[in-house]
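Flavin reductase (DIM6/NTAB) family NADH-FMN oxidoreductase RutF
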Amino acid sequence: MKNIDALAIGDKIVQSLKPSVFLTTAAEGKINTMVIGWGAIGVMWGKPVFTAMVRKSRYSWELLEKSNEFTVSIPTHDMKEALKICGTKSGRDIDKFTAAALMPQAGQKIKTPVLAGAGIHLECKVLYKQDMQPENMDKAEKERWYGDGGDWHTMYFAEIVASYED
Ligand SMILES: Cc1cc2nc3c(=O)[nH]c(=O)nc-3n(C[C@H](O)[C@H](O)[C@H](O)COP(=O)(O)O)c2cc1C
């Protein structure tokens, strides 16, 4: 395991959001991983911060609300099949670790595991969260992403407390 400076490879991390990366959560003995394509990396409150946006309908949202922490695993090799499963199936219905042949690996600084062998890992502790406020959203983007029904995102601003490559 090689420690890395997450901010120094910020552009690589942002580029990886397209096609997408894994966001893993754990709470009350359950672990789950989902795919995210939106996120940001930068400095806030003088700390390296990863910001994720998770819709309230996700099982991951439930776990994240309980644990206040998550990990991000960024594939450095082809994990298309696992990304497909984890981005379309819910941990409410299936165990995605079994379905996508993923192995949890203990985190270094937090209780949430990372995905063994995926590549680059960020361990993140939530410093601030904010439910999106519909009235604050640009009208066209609101229509495009949320329509009438909602399913709004919660934004999680999380300190990157460990970052390393396997
Ligand atoms: C390419 C891609 C990017 C995605 N990005 C996000 C995201 O940033 N936030 C989010 O809430 N869901 C996102 N999703 C959807 C979730 O990964 C998907 O709904 C998943 O099944 C949720 O799993 P869960 O219910 O186990 O948490 C994305 C899906 C794909 C395929």
